[in-house]
Amino acid sequence: MPRTMLSRHALFRRRALAALSGVLFLTLATPALAPANAVPTTSSYDVSAAPAKLDPALPRTGTTRVDVLVSGRPGQSSTVARAVRDHGGTVTATLPMIDGVRASVPAGRLADVASSSAVTAVTKNREMQFQGATYDPAKAPAPVSGSNFVNSTGASSLWTPDGQGQGIGVAVLDTGVSPMNDLTGRIVHGPDLSGEGTIIDSYGHGTVMAGIIAGDGTDTTDRSKGAYTGMAPKATVVAVKVAGRNGVTDVSTVLQGMHWVAAYKDQFNIRVLSLSWGTPSTQSPELDPLNYAVERLWQLGITVVVAAGNDGPSQATILKPGDDPLVITAGAYDDKQNLDPNDDYVAQWSSRGPTVDGLSKPDLVAPGRTLIATRSYGSEVETDNPKALVSPSYIKGSGTSQATAVTAGAAALLLEARPGLTPDQVKQALTSGASPISGETAYDEGAGRLNVPAAVAADAGPQVRQQPIATGLGSIEASRAGHDVTADCGEDGTIDLIHGEIDVRCEAWDGAAWTGGAWTGAAWTGAAWTGAAWTGGAWTGGAWTGAAWTGGAWTGGAWTGGAWTGAAWTGAAWTGSAWTGAAWTGAAWTGAAWTGGAWTGGAWTAANSDPDATAFLTAWWGNHPSYRQHIPGEKSDPRPR
Questions:
Q1: What 3-state class would DSSP assign to 487?
Q2: Is 592 helix (H, G, I), strand (E, B) or coil?
């Protein structure tokens, strides 16, 4: 490819990468407990000012400890925490968003805390529940979710008003997440690396995954059998869009998405990455850039959950990066839409181990057959699978993608309950708490079925159990495994094959460019990754090989930096008329047919009474099951690759 063609990317108009419109979420940090011998330093107290800062609903006398939120002046969070401790309180969580803390304080000392000049308000920590995901202790132990996968994994049995994934950020690196009612107020729209220039999930896969992880069932509140919820219905979904309507992306784009997750992990408290993506690459994990990226995230404290793939029942069919020894690789089992474990079995299409390097995978299996979750209206998935529609707001699907989302939601619940766990400890708890399925081997099911209550109670072991092995210095083309995309490199109407050691910007993949500043500087934010010049048009073959992969220092440098916190992420580009035009506000998007309000659970049951007839199966870019293995409702012909 002529080098002169590549320079034209410098002329791309940059597109805004993130939409933070209307986002409301809580950042829950690891509890900062006061040392027993803490000695307060200087502080300022004004008792006369205290009443104006106190929530009228709070008690003012007595020794009963009260759960409160103490907000402070900008930059005064440490002084706020000290004021709590000075007056007999305990800090239970830091809350950077309000420059304050959550605390347990004796009722009679609340006015003293409020008297600090650093404190702006002391308020009762009230319950806030999303519709359809409520918890009524009087009804326990009956499940509150109508989603069988939530109940069969035991997730709903752990739900409390403060225990549904609150404050935990789960990154969904997928096809985007459309703003559905079941996710209102809990979506952070990260970069759109697909080239579409929209937060809408036009393919439809990512919205399903987000619903399985964190849907709160808002659009099914009137359903008599319980709302269709996800595993952690109060968790925050961080959407990283790497593919558009055709569901196709490139390894280099996925790597960029992972970099963004690393850069923003602290800002959005990203503790889990759900990666329902993979390639059948056989490149050693010790060399592969995908393996290096997931291991880097793992070392940064992000629990990475990856789909095993849908290429079973043959052995050695685990997709990359699910072949990585560090990450949690999820296979799928069928819970038969009931709570009886005796009829469970690993789905035939769920990929089996061992990996190419002989590693035993998957690590566990989670429900993956006929799961109901949020749909993205007008998406490719629902167009291809009309029988899978369940209601105006939901769709039914199957695959290890779904099992991955279930496992990611379980990890969010575990981390909320035990926020100090490292990724190694999360993996240890989930696998040690899993329950084996009779007749299945370790290559079929790993440690067994996901069991959330057992995982929460399990011994998580040491903080670090596994050591990274990947250098990332292998071939990016080998990582693609022949699944190549096309792009208009010169913006001249000529379609070019992205094949060999180049990225989707049509530039040579140089390992040195991934070191140091390349991971933190402004170069990453350039328009070349978000411009319209490439669209990932189709998977194609080819034998051409490009320049050699070079640069031994690709593994160095930090993944964070100020380049990701600038005005480009909060600018007016995402609040302008482009998002409010008639195309998205017409009757088709706002009418009663899409709001779910008219659905009572009965009108849609007749046409969708057969679970198998309403299922689609996708592991997202994994090979479709062979003939006679696809589920009714899915296209029998594989999507172009």
A1: strand
A2: helix
Mention every residue, 6+ apart, whose C-beta is less than 8 A from residue 55. 68, 121, 122, 123, 124
Task: Output the six-digit token pair for 174.
Answer: 């997928």
3-class secondary structure per residue, 131-171: CCCCCCHHHCCCCCECCHHHHHCCCHHHCCCCCCCCCCEEE
- The Cα 276–Cα 519 span in angstroms is 24
Side chain identity, residue 271: R
CATH code for position 79 = 3.30.70
Check if the beta carbon of residue 89 is closer than 8 Å to that of residue 105. yes
Where does a domain end: 124, 148, 172? 124
Q: What is the 3-state secondary structure (H, E, C) of 389-446?
A: EEECCEEEEECHHHHHHHHHHHHHHHHHHCCCCCHHHHHHHHHHCCECCCCCCHHHHC
Q: Is residue 587 part of a domain?
A: no
Q: Are 273 and 261 in contact (CB under 8 A)?
A: yes
Give one DSSP letter per residue of 52-114, joined into a string.
HHB-TTS--SSS-EEEEEEEESTT-HHHHHHHHHHTT-EEEEEEGGGTEEEEEEEGGGHHHHH
Q: By the 8 A CB rule, do 387 and 334 touch?
A: no
User: Residue 23 domain-assigned?
Assistant: no
Burial of 331 (0-12, 13-18, 19+ CB in 10 A): buried
Is there a domain that residue 269 lies in? yes
Distances (CA, A) of 582 to 20, 66, 143, 586, 594: 21, 49, 41, 6, 16
Mean pLDDT in consecutive groups of 10 residues from the start of the chain, 641 residues:
29 23 24 33 55 80 91 88 95 82 93 91 64 35 75 93 92 95 94 89 95 94 90 96 89 92 93 93 92 94 96 93 97 95 94 95 96 92 86 90 97 97 98 97 98 96 92 88 83 86 84 47 33 28 28 40 32 26 27 31 33 52 44 42 34
Q: What share of the chain is helix, strand, coil (3-state, %, to 5)?
A: 30, 15, 55
Element (H, E) at 476: helix 476-480
Query: In total, how many domains does the chain have?
Result: 3
Nearest residue to 259 (alpha-carbon basis) of 635, 623, 578, 563: 563
- Which residues belong to the active site? 174, 205, 401
Q: What angle do CA 524, 528, 530 make, to 5 degrees?
A: 90
For residue 56, what pLDDT is reported?
75
Task: Answer yes or no: are the C-beta atoms of 559 and 521 closer than 8 Å.
Answer: no
| Residues 120 and 145 reside in one and the same domain | no
Say if residues 491 and 8 touch (Cβ distance below 8 Å).
yes
74 and 152 belong to one structural domain: no
* Cα–Cα dist 437/87, whole Å: 53
DSSP label of 508:
B
Question: Cβ(252)–Cβ(506) under 8 Å?
Answer: no
Structure tokens at 619: 């592991």
Q: Which of 124, 146, 180 is the last residue of a domain?
A: 124
For residues 24 and 6, give the distance between their C-alpha atoms in angstroms, rounded to a whole number. 40
If asked whether residues 316 and 439 sit together in one domain, one would say yes
CATH number, position 344: 3.40.50.200
**CB 120 within 8 Å of CB 73:** yes
In contact, 332 and 403? CB cutoff 8 Å: yes
- What is the span of the domain harbouring residue 541? 3-15+475-575
- Please name the amino acid found at residue 460: A
